[in-house]
Amino acid sequence: MLVLLTGTVLTLKAQTASPSAPDTTVMELIGKYTFPDGSVVEQVEVILDSTGLNMVSEAGTSVLQKLGVDSFALVSFQGTAVFKRDDNKKIKMVVIDAMGYHLEGKKNDTAAATKPVAILFNTNKQAIMRSAVK
Q1: What is the pLDDT of residues 53-72, one digit of tens each?
Q2: How many angstroms separate the CA atoms of 113 and 121, rounded?
Q3: DSSP letters of 66-120?
Q4: Domain with 36 in it: what CATH number?
Q5: Residue 95 within any structural domain of the chain
Q6: In the chain, how many domains are there?
Q7: Residue 83 · residue 93 · CB < 8 Å
Q8: Residue 85 lies in a domain
Q9: 7 three-class SS
Q10: What pLDDT digit, counting tens, does each position of 37-55 carry?
Q11: Is residue 80 a part of any domain in this protein?
Q12: What secondary structure letter does DSSP report for 39?
């Protein structure tokens, strides 16, 4: 009886658990990517918002729909985005094939992206992000 009760409680808890934080693979993709001079777009930014993972540029915004480990469909542009890693398994670039264009952009390494960030809430329960390192 105890085993049955424990199984039932664990099943209910798993069903009512809050959604987990985005996995580390997704978090590694977030950032800005710069393309060579003369490219159709100079830069794209990968962001995570309430709609999921998105790629934003001056050409527009597209949801990134997962195809594989580091490959995504660019839904709005009928194309693909494949993220490339270096020998240390860090994201180093993105290769975009969309609407007849082939683009290869390097990920920008910014100091802000490597600093720990604390998420605080103000009196209106709005999230405020502050660097944890001064």
Answers
A1: 999 999 999 999 999 989 99
A2: 21
A3: E-SSSEEEEGGGTEEEEEEE-TTS-EEEEEEEETTEEEEEEEP--HHHHS-EEEE
A4: 2.40.128.50
A5: yes
A6: 1
A7: yes
A8: yes
A9: helix
A10: 999 999 999 999 988 999 9
A11: yes
A12: S
> According to the model, what pLDDT value does residue 40 have?
92
Judged by DSSP in three states, 60 sits in strand
Task: Please report the pLDDT score of residue 36 as a whole number.
Answer: 96
Single-letter code of the amino acid located at 54: N
- Assign 18 to helix, strand or coil: coil
The residue type of 47 is I
Please indicate, yes or no, if residue 59 is contained in any of the structural domains. Answer: yes
Contact 43, 57 (CB under 8 A): yes
Residue 94 lies in domain: 22-109
Q: H or E segment at 26?
A: helix 24-29
pLDDT at 9: 52
The model's confidence at residue 130, banded by pLDDT at 50, 70 and 90, is very low
Taking the C-alpha atoms of residue 113 and residue 116, their distance in angstroms, rounded to an integer, is: 8
CB 53 within 8 A of CB 72: yes
pTM of the predicted structure, to 2 decimals: 0.66
Compute CA 88 distance to the chain's CA centroid, rounded to the nearest angstrom.
Answer: 19
